[in-house]
Amino acid sequence: MARRDAVLTAATDLAREALADIAPAEQIGDHLTVKAEEDRLHTHRFAAHKTGYRGWEWYVTVARAPRSKKVTVCELGLLPGDDALLAPKWIPWAERMDAEEKKQAREQEAEIAAEKAAEQAEASQGASQQT
Q1: What is this structure's pTM?
Q2: What is the mean pLDDT of residues 25-42?
Q3: d(C-alpha 18, C-alpha 36), whole Å
């Protein structure tokens, strides 16, 4: 388990300043959490007040070298929070089709197979007539 680092935990203002490079101040809400990902690697999360991103959170990952007090921003962006609106899990079309759609698909496949068979028969008939 990663140890909590006092210097990185206190880097809330630095994390907020980093977000100001990619988002207007009014889109950056309250500081929500800080999590120790690894030793000397923490992620700060802020509420996101961004249109179309209800329930999402800004994150800023910060780190520092051993025995250094200088904090570095590693990455930042948006992540879905617990009540974020997300796209539903993708389901292949064949699994989403109802009985009528499956029947239509089988009929179309049969028609295509019949057309290919007819084309192949014509091609082989034409080749045998030329010899």
Answers
A1: 0.68
A2: 97
A3: 18
